[in-house]
């Protein structure tokens, strides 16, 4: 050990959804940025291993990814790139497909790599692939907080319910945070949450906590086209205001107690979850 192992509690938040295209990646990016605006040291990990687009959303043009770290051709520190607002970004290792496929040596290498990251961190935000593939389940189980994003479409509600149901019944995840995206206003967001709550209350032993709503916002679309986060490109846009309000709430979430809060423990839990799945 080189004495630089992380020894501080890190909040780990996995952003997930049932249905695709509901705004997970946009939420992950802007939440990361808004938390950085509150003075937190934030890392954003693109956990959509096969189809990740965080580098595109932020116009980062990343050349190396986690796949290179696992292949042993570079260090994690060389993969991490700087994003807006000082956030640090780990781009997706596209083509890696699933954590389940990592060899024991690759897994050890990944733990080692996160453990050696010299940069202190307060929050790790993990964007995930939509649905319930193995790597998403792994990230969610390894995180302390699961933020489920949904929008007001029957398929989105049904798929959010299915995701929560699977994680609850098959994996014992019992607490979920819920964010309503692309809504007309705060009231529609609360109603959407109420719909989901009615479904889950009837059948599941899970607790759902409402985080808030992000309104439908043309400025957010414009920001995506410019490969920029709305919080940066249009800081006074209504969605940017919503993201900042949500970040203030998130910032008040309790921190994990040591020692599980270390970033390297996040990776260990991730890998254990993957092994349990494949066993
Ligand atoms: N609040 C919003 N207002 C308007 N458009 C939005 C909003 N949130 C997201 N979008 C649009 O939806 C698109 C999809 O968002 P995003 O890529 O974040 O979804 P995703 O859930 O990560 O999708 P995938 O499942 O494919 O990973 C964005 O490119 C953006 O244009
Ligand atoms: Mg995405």
TrEMBL record:
<dbReference type="InterPro" id="IPR050625">
    <property type="entry name" value="ParA/MinD_ATPase"/>
</dbReference>
<dbReference type="GO" id="GO:0051782">
    <property type="term" value="P:negative regulation of cell division"/>
</dbReference>
<dbReference type="GO" id="GO:0005829">
    <property type="term" value="C:cytosol"/>
</dbReference>
<dbReference type="InterPro" id="IPR033875">
    <property type="entry name" value="FlhG"/>
</dbReference>
<dbReference type="Pfam" id="PF10609">
    <property type="entry name" value="ParA"/>
</dbReference>
<protein>
    <submittedName>
        <fullName>Flagellar biosynthesis protein FlhG</fullName>
    </submittedName>
</protein>
<keyword id="KW-0067">ATP-binding</keyword>
<dbReference type="GO" id="GO:0009898">
    <property type="term" value="C:cytoplasmic side of plasma membrane"/>
</dbReference>
<dbReference type="GO" id="GO:0016887">
    <property type="term" value="F:ATP hydrolysis activity"/>
</dbReference>
<dbReference type="InterPro" id="IPR033756">
    <property type="entry name" value="YlxH/NBP35"/>
</dbReference>
<keyword id="KW-0547">Nucleotide-binding</keyword>
<keyword id="KW-0282">Flagellum</keyword>
<dbReference type="InterPro" id="IPR027417">
    <property type="entry name" value="P-loop_NTPase"/>
</dbReference>
<dbReference type="InterPro" id="IPR025501">
    <property type="entry name" value="MinD_FleN"/>
</dbReference>
<keyword id="KW-0969">Cilium</keyword>
<dbReference type="GO" id="GO:0005524">
    <property type="term" value="F:ATP binding"/>
</dbReference>
<keyword id="KW-0966">Cell projection</keyword>
